[in-house]
Amino acid sequence: MAVQEARQGGADPAAHEGGCTCGDCPHGAREGHRRAVAAFLVKRDEFATGQGLPAAVAHSASASRQWVSEELAQAAEAVAERGRAEGAAWLARLWQRTAVVAWAGVLALLLVQALTAIGAGWTSARTAGLLAAVLVAGALTAASWFHRARGGALAPVVGEDNRLSTSRAVAGSWVLLVAFAVLVLVGRLAAASDHRERDALIDGLELARGAGVVTVLAVVCGIAVLVRRVVGLRVQGQRLQKVRAHRPRAADLLTDDSGRGSFADIQYVVINAVALAFAAVRLARRPDQLPDLPWGLAVVVLVSAGTYLAGKYAEGGRPVILSVVRAREAGDLDAPIRTGDDIEIRGTGFVPAGAQGADRLARMVVRVGPVNVHVPLVPVVGGFDNPADDLLTVPVPADVEPGRVDVQVVTAAGVETNRYTIDVTE
């Protein structure tokens, strides 16, 4: 729909028709980004079919390729700027949504307690649970306000790459559940008048009662800290490529940086969600003690955490050049590599996860000797033929001296490949 609108000319992107598109309001940033993406897709597909080329470069394949690449790189940067503005606006209004969700949870708890109290009567445990929910919701609302520019209450679970962190989200969920359980016990202890009831509530905090949930809490919090350290060290050591996202998405909890489903993340979220649901039910049934998570279920969570951590160690890897050959078109004679020729760089890991956008692809550089060559964007309908994750095509610049020359790729994440030596003849 957006592409059809752009093909038909559409409205002036700076106009306020069909929704404000200026960058100073959330709706305008979203609409401006949508229209910028639509215009870019139209331009890319037109260039892919040979349309829009000026007559001055149409006669030369290399000149037209360079001109198209520059035009698409500039357009992609404009789209990326719109995307960053849309992401900032989305984060700025997210704090209100998190506050609404928190208080909606309080209302849902009140309705459930009111319905279950029919016949059984209202108890001090229901009052303590409701007050605990109000305190937790109030704390989340206050945190959302103070961090409203960075996503509200979700700010602590947003990683350095501007994506939702699975490990932090899981740890945060367990922290909220345990905090809520302790507040329920505090409320009941404050309302208790009989010393035997107070002693029973204090006994409910004994480690023997909540050893399972305390162990799980310690492990998931440790995993959240350890994963951050592991990822940071692997990025610094160029063993993992990371690119920053425009904004966090809920799908980040279940996918990798490229948006594909990740087994390690999915199993970690699913198993912890089941364990959290079990612990919440146990707390509702026994509000006089910490949720007694069975050791069988606790061990399952620990196995899931170990699998998730192993997945973090196994993901990624450095880009590698396997071979470099002279690019040959149909009808060309076999020949050595000379200046001005196109070369094909074959390998793996040239396009990092999450760097499939044109603005990221345009940042790729190939060092041919002392010369930095920007990888040209070669569009095809629906995407790009160059660069690809396993193949790059670049020209050998005229400034390269004949002889043995090193070739090295620098990806959009700033990671360098190994050096590969080729022979350039006159």
Automatic annotation (TrEMBL):
The entry's keywords: Membrane, Transmembrane, Transmembrane helix
Coiled coil: none
Gene3D superfamilies, A to Z: Immunoglobulins (2.60.40.10)
Keyword NAD found: no
Domain of life: Bacteria
Transmembrane segments: 100-122, 128-148, 169-191, 211-231
InterPro entries: Ig-like_fold (IPR013783)
Protein name: Membrane protein
Species name: Streptomyces griseorubens
